[in-house]
Amino acid sequence: MLRIGLGRDLHRLAPGRRFLLAGVEIPCEKGEIGHSDADALAHAVIDATLGAAGAGDVGELFPDTDPAYKGADSMFLLKRAFGRVKIGGWRVVNLDCVVTCETPKILPYREKIRAALADALEADAGAIMVKGKTNEGLDALGQGGAVEALAVCLLESI
Ligand code: MG
User: Is the pTM for the entire model greater than 0.90?
Assistant: First the structure.
């Protein structure tokens, strides 16, 4: 059996924070604001995998009101969430992601991001894709005020 899941996340950007995508730090004058490390791509991927497995969502598993998750490493949270997916008897067929932000450019970091996601999801990096987009200067995304991540994940029952 195959099941598909969709995840989406957005974080505001501000100076003095790290810009993280799937745990890969990208040099940038602004970074994501949030309760955890605010890694928007990791959060979107958590929701895509949990969604496909029918196993909950990121806010339910790791509430941003829980002091335990203050400054949390979101790739560690992804591995924990994926543990639930595996217990349900699923493996990743492929994952496809879009990250929208005005800066920084994603392409130079894409292979590191794919490898990090592949490691967390116990998948081949070839089954994982990440594309960077701008928002053509429009809205908060286009004015450098936020980063948005979208992810779709296909799971196959083991
Ligand atoms: Mg988030």
Answer: yes
